[in-house]
């Protein structure tokens, strides 16, 4: 790029440094639909409009009220009484001229019920402040489009909820925070071996000796070690220490004192590259074995799976158990000339590997009856360079998460026992702590059930509709019914003291049976889970009365925008858990703004 | 407009009793009245990516009297996240424009801008705020503000912080998809100086690599920037905001890269390396600012349990956050009630002062220290210098009889007193 920078590159400079022009292109072709433009929705969209999406459409059925002026920055006092969708659209458009915005003045629930085709024209649907029942319908609608990814966001008092739903999130250009360089010093290829062997360190002058790249030093030391140990590399910790000592023994000395040679310092630090064994990351191994790249590979499969199939063919063939070489090396103490030569050895090997993968891609495309050039060389290069970091996360549908037949009760029970905080700090096996993030998930779902029965949220003033005065409600009065609803949520997940056979039998309005202490007792697994729904949390959720605080909405709007960017650019891992089998699993995020913790639940 | 209806959501939490609340929470309409009153003044330091969000979040959390200070003007590259600014504002002061926009949008809010340096404001100005929120991008500015609020802190005779001198400060910071929010209550929670290790040192290239063995595009860029500029344009100060200067460095770097066969010098990379640009996006700023203002609101009203005392947020791979209670450093030169220091009772006051100046932790905060013990000046620069000079040759054990006494050290490099706890014990045993 020359010094004449185009205006877009200047405007987006600080984010291009993260996701590059490729990620930006994906963002700039993304059409987003937002359902409900209260502060949670408006803030989410604000962050994405600033980033430069293609377009947005807001669906919202409300008029701007006084309440909006207290929690939403994207309305103005002069627009009281106007359609909220229109006002927010206009104010959002001021933020970025290259984004086109439109709105539909309609209640999202009505659109979901009456006009599912509406959602076909979007890449991403962001549903905010909506209830479980409608979200389950919308999830099915979005999946049926074969295009629209769904993001569900909620701010409820001092609790936040976020969940994505889409068949697969496939990540190509991953940007891991830290990674080991792909050096292959434990199994060097012939050209690299020859390069290392071409150095005669013993006869080199002092300057060359001190500027020989550490890769060469380590490979020579490894070669010497192999000769002395029957072809084996260092295995035990004593051998590893001895190997490091042998590297240090190669330093040049003056009067018996080792000279200051930075390249040898680096070699000693990087010695683990020699005796570490090469392994394909477990997540990638899982992909290579995935049926989508095997028996289920079809003519209409995503290019991702074609590439994974080609990579598998490479690993089994030319790669001899390795992925294509990444081809870049870290900076190391060396002369310019030697460094560039070494760089070329790595680059050329990476190019050969890419060519081999490309041959597999062309062959597979032919077998599938697709044009051999339907995947470009540039794309193949991209996959090869990022092969170690390819990922695929699959999302369960909301219906699977919520229906009694498929709910993951055990995962929920574990979350209820674990308490709050990302690392599961506190809590442990000693019963649930006062503030348990898993319990907040249950209570949000319970609040929806409360709403279905009463037409309002626990602790919320009776009338949320415009014009009607807010009658005062004592939040404590709503605790019993909320507790009962929470116990039902647990029962439906196979937990709780009275598992219900029929989830739709309703709560019946009674307060009996499940009162008093939420069934905590006995120390049995379901009892402990129910015990996490404690009085403090019930009282706090009722106190909040479904308030949508601007700060909580702004936090969730930020998290939702980050998640949207990850789903759209396909460069970052979305919210997930990694199971013991190292399979990334999509997660549901609970933000606990009381304790300033976040928890990802596998549901 | 109906104020009660407007603040309906906030009032639910401010007027109702709760179970998980801060100490001394007293629900009622008085809390919002307090937030809206001139008794509650909040300062936002910085009107950039975090500052714009913080101002909006404060205004929509019921706070009316807000000041904002920033010395920068608006640049095109701010517009991907600093949502209060438009293309036509480029070149205008950030603080002024941000204040105008918030005042125009949120009825009743009074944001007062200061277009200037934080170092140019008097201590009393900072003292006048109920709470300070930092939306900064440099460690040095954070340390400065830290020294300001810790400078207000006073301890009683038992070494307990005097509540009335505590200036709460909330700090946020972001880089790419990551960020942190923390609450600093001087005397109670660690201050910046206590946890400086949280900020890793910047990597710098050795000059000999730049001059003799360049291997990467960054080496070529830093050669042009750090070595060639001074040789070719001596006496001329390099200005990172001057397009011609940046272009010059880019072109020289590109020439050098070509000469050595190194690929990858671009104008974008040149700017990134020379200005040490930190990637920044709207969403992360929104998250961190919201957490900061939420914690500010908790500190001001106690309406919910507060963050104690540090939250790290990592959104780059999945979502990970860690809420940690860091510990104060008992030897913190800025906030400790008494940094323990082993002193030889036979040493003179002059030798004690020399010991302070030579101390690896304390010395860098001092240039010409004055020392007092209680209300007695042991040695003071200025008008008492002549009176106290004779003490310099006196024995410490005679000047300060009590082992474990806390001496107060003042210096023009400090914005508050440094407290040093004199320990004779080990020296006497020796």
From TrEMBL, chain A:
Residues 492-513 are annotated as: Disordered. One of its GO terms (molecular function) is NEDD8 activating enzyme activity. Residues 12-571 form the THIF-type NAD/FAD binding fold domain. The keyword Calcium does not apply. InterPro entries: APP-BP1 (IPR030667), ThiF/MoeB/HesA (IPR045886), ThiF_NAD_FAD-bd (IPR000594), Ubiquitin-activating_enz (IPR035985). Gene3D superfamilies: NAD(P)-binding Rossmann-like Domain. GO terms for biological process: protein neddylation. Pfam families: ThiF. Pathway: Protein modification; protein neddylation. It comes from the Eukaryota. Keywords: Ubl conjugation pathway. One of its GO terms (cellular component) is cytoplasm. Belongs to the ubiquitin-activating E1 family. ULA1 subfamily. Regulatory subunit of the dimeric E1 enzyme. E1 activates RUB1/NEDD8 by first adenylating its C-terminal glycine residue with ATP, thereafter linking this residue to the side chain of the catalytic cysteine, yielding a RUB1-ECR1 thioester and free AMP. E1 finally transfers RUB1 to the catalytic cysteine of RCE1. This is NEDD8-activating enzyme E1 regulatory subunit.
From TrEMBL, chain B:
GO terms for cellular component: cytoplasm; nucleus. CDD domains: Uba3_RUB. It comes from the Eukaryota. It comes from Edaphochlamys debaryana. InterPro entries: E2-binding (IPR014929), ThiF/MoeB/HesA (IPR045886), ThiF_NAD_FAD-bd (IPR000594), Ub_act_enz_dom_a_sf (IPR023318), Uba3_N (IPR030468), Ubiquitin-activating_enz (IPR035985), UBQ-activ_enz_E1_Cys_AS (IPR033127). GO terms for biological process: protein neddylation. Keywords: ATP-binding, Ligase, Nucleotide-binding, Ubl conjugation pathway. Catalytic subunit of the dimeric E1 enzyme, which activates NEDD8. This is NEDD8-activating enzyme E1 catalytic subunit. Its EC number is 6.2.1.64. SMART domains: E2_bind (SM01181).
């Amino acid at each position: 790029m020359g010094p004449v920078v185009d205006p877009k590159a200047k405007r987006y400079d600080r984010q291009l440094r993260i996701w590059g022009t490729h990620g930006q292109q994906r963002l700039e072709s993304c059409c987003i639909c937002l359902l409900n433009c209260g502060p949670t929705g408006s803030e989410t969209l604000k962050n994405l409009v600033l980033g430069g999406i293609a377009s947005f459409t807001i669906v919202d059925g409300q008029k701007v009220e006084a309440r909006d002026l207290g929690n939403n920055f994207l309305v103005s006092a002069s627009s009281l009484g106007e359609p909220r969708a229109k006002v927010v659209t206009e104010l959002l458009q001021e933020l970025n001229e290259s984004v086109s915005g439109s709105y539909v003045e309609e209640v999202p629930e009505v659109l979901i019920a009456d006009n599912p085709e509406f959602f076909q024209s979007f890449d991403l649907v962001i549903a905010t402040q909506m209830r479980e029942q409608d979200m389950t319908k919308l999830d099915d609608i979005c999946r049926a489009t074969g295009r629209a990814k769904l993001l569900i966001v909620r701010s409820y008092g001092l609790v936040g909820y976020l969940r994505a739903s889409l068949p697969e999130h496939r990540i190509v250009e991953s940007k891991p925070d830290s990674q080991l360089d792909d050096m292959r010093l434990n199994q060097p290829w012939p050209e690299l071996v020859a390069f290392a062997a071409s150095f005669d360190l013993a006869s080199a002058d002092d300057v060359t000796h001190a500027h020989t790249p550490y890769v060469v030093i380590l490979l020579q030391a490894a070669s010497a070690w192999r000769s002395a140990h029957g072809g084996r590399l260092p295995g035990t910790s004593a051998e590893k220490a001895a190997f490091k000592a042998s590297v240090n023994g190669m330093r040049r000395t003056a009067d018996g004192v080792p000279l200051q040679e930075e390249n040898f310092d680096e070699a000693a630090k990087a010695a683990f590259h020699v005796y570490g064994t090469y392994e394909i990351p477990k997540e990638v191994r899982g992909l290579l074995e995935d049926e989508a790249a095997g028996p289920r590979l079809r003519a209409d499969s995503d290019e991702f799976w074609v590439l994974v199939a080609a990579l598998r063919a490479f690993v089994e063939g030319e790669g001899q158990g390795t992925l294509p070489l990444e081809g870049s090396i870290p900076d190391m103490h060396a002369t310019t000339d030697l460094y560039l030569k070494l760089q070329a050895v790595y680059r050329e090997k990476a190019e050969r590997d890419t060519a081999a993968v490309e041959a597999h891609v062309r062959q597979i495309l032919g077998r599938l009856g697709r044009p051999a050039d339907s995947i470009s060389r540039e794309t193949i290069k991209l996959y090869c360079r990022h092969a170690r970091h390819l990922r695929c996360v699959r999302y369960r549908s909301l219906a699977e998460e919520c229906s009694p037949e498929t709910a993951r009760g055990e995962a929920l029970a574990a979350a209820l026992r674990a308490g709050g905080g990302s690392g599961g700090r506190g809590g442990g096996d000693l019963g649930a702590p006062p503030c348990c993030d898993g319990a907040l998930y249950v209570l949000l779902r319970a609040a929806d059930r409360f709403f279905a029965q009463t037409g309002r949220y626990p602790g919320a003033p009776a009338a949320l509709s415009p014009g009607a005065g807010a009658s005062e409600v004592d939040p404590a009065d709503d605790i019993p019914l909320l507790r009962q609803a929470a116990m039902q949520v647990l029962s439906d997940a196979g937990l709780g003291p009275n598992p219900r056979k029929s989830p739709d039998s309703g709560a019946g309005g009674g307060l009996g049976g499940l009162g008093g202490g939420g069934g905590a007792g006995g120390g049995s697994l379901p009892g402990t889970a129910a015990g996490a729904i404690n009085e403090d949390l019930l009282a706090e959720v009722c106190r909040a009365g479904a308030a949508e605080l601007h700060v909580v909405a702004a936090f969730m709007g930020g998290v939702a925008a980050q998640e949207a960017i990850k789903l759209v650019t396909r460069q970052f891992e979305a919210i997930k858990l990694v199971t013991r089998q190292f399979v990334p699993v999509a997660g549901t995020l609970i933000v606990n703004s009381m304790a300033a913790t976040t928890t990802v639940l596998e549901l | 407009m109906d104020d009660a209806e407007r603040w309906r959501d906030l009032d639910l939490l401010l007027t109702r009793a709760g179970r998980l609340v801060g100490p001394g929470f007293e629900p009622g309409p008085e809390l919002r009245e307090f937030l809206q009153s001139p008794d509650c003044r909040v300062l936002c330091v910085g009107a950039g990516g975090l500052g714009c969000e913080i101002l909006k979040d404060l205004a929509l959390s019921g706070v009316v009297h807000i000041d904002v200070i920033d010395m920068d003007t608006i640049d095109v590259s701010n517009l991907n996240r600093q949502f209060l600014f438009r293309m036509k504002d480029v070149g205008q002061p950030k603080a002024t424009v941000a204040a105008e926009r918030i005042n125009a949008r949120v009825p009743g809010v009074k944001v007062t801008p200061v277009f200037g340096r934080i170092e140019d404001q008097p201590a009393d100005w900072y003292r006048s705020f109920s709470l300070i929120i930092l939306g900064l991008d440099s460690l040095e500015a954070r340390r400065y503000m830290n020294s300001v609020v810790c400078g207000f802190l006073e301890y009683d005779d038992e070494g307990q912080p005097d509540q009335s001198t505590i200036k709460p400060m909330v700090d946020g910071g972001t880089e790419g998809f990551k960020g942190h929010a923390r609450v600093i209550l001087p005397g109670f929670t660690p201050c910046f100086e206590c946890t400086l290790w949280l900020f890793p040192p910047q990597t710098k290239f050795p000059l000999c690599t730049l001059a003799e063995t360049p291997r990467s595009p960054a080496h070529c860029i830093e050669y042009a920037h750090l070595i060639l500029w001074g040789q070719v344009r001596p006496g001329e100060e390099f200005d990172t905001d001057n397009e011609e200067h940046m272009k010059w460095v880019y072109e020289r770097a590109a020439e050098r890269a070509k000469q050595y066969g190194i690929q990858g010098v671009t104008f974008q990379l040149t700017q990134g390396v020379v200005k040490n640009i930190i990637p920044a996006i709207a969403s992360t700023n929104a998250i961190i600012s919201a957490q900061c203002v939420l914690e500010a609101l908790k500190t001001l009203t106690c309406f919910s349990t507060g963050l104690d005392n540090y939250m790290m947020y990592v959104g780059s791979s999945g979502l990970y956050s860690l809420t940690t209670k860091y510990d104060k450093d008992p030897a913190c030169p800025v906030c400790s009630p008494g940094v323990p220091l082993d002193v030889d009772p036979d040493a003179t006051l002059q030798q004690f002062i020399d010991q302070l100046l030579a101390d690896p932790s304390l010395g860098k905060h001092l240039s010409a220290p004055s020392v007092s013990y209680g209300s007695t000046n042991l040695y003071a620069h200025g008008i008492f210098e002549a009176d106290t000079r004779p003490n310099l040759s006196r024995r410490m054990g005679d000047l300060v009889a009590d082992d474990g006494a806390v001496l107060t050290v003042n210096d023009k490099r400090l914005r508050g007193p440094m407290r040093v706890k004199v320990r004779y014990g080990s020296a006497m045993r020796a």
